[in-house]
Amino acid sequence: MPVISRISVQKHNKERYSVFIDSAKGEEYAFSVDEDVLIKYQLKKGMELDDLSVTEMLYQDDIRKAYNLAINYLARRMRSEEEIREHLRQKEVDETVIQEAVHRLYEYKFLNDHEFASAFVRTQMNSADKGPELIKAELKKKGIKQQIIIEAIAEYPLEAQIEKAVYLGSKFAAKNSRDSSKILKQKLEQHLLRKGYPFQVINIAMEEIIVEKQEDLEMDALKYQGDKLLKKHANLTGSEFRRKIKQGLFNKGFSFDLIDKYLNSLELE
């Protein structure tokens, strides 16, 4: 059996050690291990090594390396278990080693999907404009179990959802003030749906957001859209011109009464 001739700390990593053995050719490098593995197996000069022991040591060393990779990944921010597993897979770590590393992370309380999910919800609620449905979808993508997601989303109460939806909706309405009230309402509902707000919240928020405009403001929006259509159909005349303008404005959500007023004003001009 080979005998350890020397153990030296690695130059670029003071927590890893290179193990050398005597051979017919003289001293040669055998393998390297983490400091924890070195201590666990009490490796020292003159110690005899057998294949089974070396295999077990190297397996434990692989677990330690995977564990260290995970710790470094966790140093940036909290992670879900699935995020850790995927990170280690990308580093081409064997699945059995990943399982042991993950077990160790739970043992030392570096992993906790319940705490991760709750913290994720609070962060998204306070720093982003995402609604609960979008947050739940992101948690699912991160491998969080459904029951944990349900418990975590309770961190985002209905009152906060409504307040955020009203704020986002009001900003959206101001930016799209040149749309008709009808189209603005449709766009606003779709905007809040894409942001992840449920219909219950959207319906309540819509009651607080000023969407229905007074007639003079609606007419201002109509004139803006109408003037764009005038340029588009400038090559038309007569009834065809009037029909195109009327159809275009109706498609943009304006009432026939306001459209007729607009067209009549054009004829007067």
Automatic annotation (TrEMBL):
Its main location: cytoplasm. Residues 159-206, 218-263 form the RecX third three-helical domain. Signal peptide: none annotated. One of its GO terms (biological process) is regulation of DNA repair. InterPro entries: RecX_HTH_1st, RecX_HTH_2nd, RecX_HTH_3rd, Regulatory_RecX, WH-like_DNA-bd_sf. It comes from the Bacteria. Residues 66-105 form the RecX first three-helical domain. Keywords: Cytoplasm. This is Regulatory protein RecX. It is found in: Cytoplasm.
